[in-house]
Design brief:
The protein is an alpha/beta fold. It has one domain: Dihydrofolate Reductase, subunit A, CATH 3.40.430.10. The protein has helices at residues 25-35, 45-52, 55-61, 66-77, 101-110, 121-129, and strands spanning 4-11, 40-44, 79-83, 94-97, 115-118, 133-141, 161-168, 174-180. Strands 4-3-2-5-1-6-8-7 form an eight-stranded mixed sheet, with helices on both faces. A hairpin with a 5-residue loop joins strand 7 and strand 8. The longest helix is centred in the middle third of the chain and has 12 residues, at 66-77. The relative contact order is 0.26.
């Protein structure tokens, strides 16, 4: 049985707005290192649609910095599960998953490795409350958005995290890795 880990980009004031990220080549290399070991990626519909509108063209075109191209190729190759109640066109190696606790648990158990939830703040909250997210990779950019959805806004119970690792990029972006649901050895 695999685990579900998650990743989120945040501004300094806790907003999850993809426009408020210091996305230089070092950032793309680091996020590629995060994505690479996962057997599958999990998305909420909004995040999937946003990424699907951009990254497949980057992977095809090859006209990008090495870090951006590496991330595009990783995203392109991975199986993607999209949690949505609407139909999903067969594209970008994506499959539809229904937004229920049992379905997500079954998906986690059947993937054959760990699954990474990519951004998707609306989906992150219930998965964490259901005890399905065991680790979080958070990239905090030194920017203030002042608007947008806030990370884990509306979480109904205290889910205490344990800090496992901190990586600081030259741009000032901090990559924080936390585990949830008990003790874990820092890697």
């Amino acid at each position: 049985m695999g685990e579900i880990h998650a990743t989120m980009n945040l501004s300094l004031d806790g907003c999850c707005d993809h426009c408020y990220v210091v996305a230089d080549d070092e950032f793309h290399e680091r996020i590629s290192d995060v994505f690479e070991p996962y057997s599958a990626l999990l998305f909420g519909r909004t995040t999937y649609d946003l990424l699907h509108g951009y990254w497949p063209n980057v992977a095809l075109g090859g006209d990008a910095t090495p870090g951006v191209l590496r991330l595009a190729q990783i995203l392109d190759e991975k199986i993607k599960y999209v949690v949505t109640s609407r139909a999903l066109a067969p594209a970008w190696n994506a499959r539809r998953a229904t937004p229920t606790q049992d379905e997500i648990r079954t998906l986690r158990d059947e993937v054959g490795g760990n699954v990474l939830l990519v951004a998707s703040p609306t989906l992150a909250r219930p998965l964490l409350q259901w005890g399905l997210v065991s680790e979080y990779h958070i990239a905090v950019s030194p920017m203030v958005a002042g608007h947008g959805p806030h990370f884990l806004e509306g979480l109904k119970e205290d889910v205490p995290p344990m800090l496992l690792d901190v990586t600081r990029l030259r741009s000032g972006v901090l990559f924080l890795r936390y585990c949830f649901g008990g003790q874990r050895d820092a890697a």
